[in-house]
Amino acid sequence: MEPTLLKAMDITMHDTALLRLFQLISPSLPTGGFSYSQGIEWAVEAGWIQNRADLQHWLEDLLEHAMSRVDIPILRRMYAACEQGEKQALVHWSEQLLAWRETSELRLEEQNRGRALATLLRQMEVGRAADWHQSIALCQLAGYALAAVTWNIPVRQAAAGYVWSWLENQVLAGIKIIPLGQTAGQRILFDLAGRIPAVVARGLEFEEQDIGSAMPALALACCGHEMQYTRLYRS
Known about the structure:
- By secondary structure, the chain is mainly alpha-helical.
- The protein contains eleven helices and no strands.
- It has helices spanning 3-25, 40-45, 52-83, 87-100, 104-123, 133-136, 140-150, 155-177, 182-193, 196-205, 216-226.
- Helix 3 runs antiparallel to helix 8.
- The longest helix is centred in the N-terminal third of the chain and has 32 residues, at 52-83.
């Protein structure tokens, strides 16, 4: 095969994987990410988050201490399990992820979005989605890992996309609840997006025994949100 044709095929495969990643992290993906504030709604009512700077500091802490120490290391292991066809390993890491969700609200979000993504992937006939339906329905990260492997999205790009999607949803929640202007929200996204590559790089290097984080403010905010009298977001 001629080198120019091989190069063209490489470009096409790369572009397709990138477009699949865009689809996977899109706010239009019907898994309900837009309906959860992960404690921000209560934190605003309690006065912990009152402006753009407060929201940016809150999200920066979660990037550094939750995403890099829990979600990304576990995504890496889920990705490997999907590559190797090891369903039990995927189940193991799903259970580990749920154990690190410190409140019933956070666990329910993970499970609800996991079931929605598993159903979507099965309907789209993505890879092992039908055979592994019960396993990937345990949490959203499991289905995300399976889709990334099936669509040949490199793990580093998949991790960066996952963090971006989480960050965008959280900023949108803050814009509505505080409230903030759209420009202020875009400034937060711009500032914190620059930290994503380093967060992903650290997370992918974590050894198994180092996985874990304590985020007491997040846990308290989610517990408060479960009993909040008026709220826009799901519990």
